[in-house]
Specification:
Two copies of one chain form a homodimer. With about 110 residues, the first copy, chain A, is α+β, with helices and mostly antiparallel strands. In chain A, about 60% of the residues lie in helices and about 15% in strands. The structure holds a DNA duplex (30 and 30 nucleotides).
DNA sequence: TCCTCTATTCGGTGTTGCTAGGTACTGGTA
DNA sequence: TACCAGTACCTAGCAACACCGAATAGAGGA
C-alpha cells in the first residue's frame, strides 16, 4: 500500500490497537502479528512497541509481565476504564471524519 | 474536537482537499472557509496553504493567479490528471482502512 | 487614519510511524 | 559444540504532517 496508508495510520493506529485490546488483553508481538494477518503488512514492530509505551504512560492501559515458554517474558496490556473512555472518544472522532469523507466521495461522483 | 482529530487528519486532509478540488477549482482561503462550514472548525489556515504548496510541488494540481476585487490576488488550484489518479488511490487506501476499522468496531460490540 | 475582511506566506514545535539496528531467551540442527 | 530460527522486547535517528503565531498586502468602511 505504501506511503499513503502510513500517513493515514497516524492517529488511527492508536485507536486500532486500543480496539484490539478492548476485545481481550494482548502483548506487543501478538498485536503486531494480528495486524499483519488483517492486512496491515507494512506495520513495523517497533511502531507497536513505541505506541504501547505511549498509551501506558498516558494511563490508558494496565500492564502485567507474564513468562513465556519460548522467549523473553511477555508484557500483556489490558484496556482500563480510562482507556475505554478514550476509545469511545476515538470512535466518535472517527465517525465524524468518516461521515465527512463519505459525503465528499458521494459529492464528487 | 481537539487533538484526536488533528492526528487523524494527518494523511486524510490531503485527500479531503483534493476531493474538494475535484468538484471544482478553488483557492486556499476559500477551501479553509468551506472546511470550517463542514465542521472542521479547528483546521488552521496555515495548514491548508502549506498543503497546497506540497500538492503543487508533486504535480497533482495546476495553479492560476486570479485578481480579486477585495484583497491580494488568489491562487486558484485545479486538479489535473495526475491528481485525479492520486485521488483514486487515496480513496482505495481510505476504503481499506475504513473497512478494517468497521470490522474492529463490530467485533468489540 | 485606523480597523476589518480578504488572501497568502513562513519559521518553529510536537506527534507520529518508519528504518535499522540491538538484546535476550528457547529449541532444533549440523 | 556452534549456529540459526523463532519468540519477544527496546531504542536512536529520521521524515511527514498539522498546529501556532506572526508577518505581509490590498480593498473598503468608520
Amino acid at each position: 500500500m505504501g506511503k499513503l496508508v502510513t500517513e493515514m495510520l497516524k492517529g488511527t493506529l492508536e485507536g486500532i490497537v486500543l480496539a484490539i485490546l478492548s476485545a481481550r488483553p494482548a502483548y506487543g508481538y501478538e498485536i503486531t502479528a494480528r495486524l499483519r494477518d488483517q492486512g496491515f503488512t507494512d506495520i513495523a514492530e517497533g511502531t507497536i512497541y513505541a505506541l504501547l509505551v505511549r498509551v501506558e504512560q498516558r494511563g490508558l492501559v494496565d500492564v502485567k509481565k507474564v513468562p513465556s515458554e519460548k522467549g523473553p517474558p511477555r508484557k500483556v496490556y489490558s484496556l482500563n476504564d480510562q482507556g475505554r473512555e478514550y476509545l469511545e472518544e476515538f470512535w466518535r472522532t472517527w465517525s465524524f471524519l468518516a461521515e465527512r469523507l463519505e459525503q465528499l466521495r458521494e459529492g464528487s461522483k
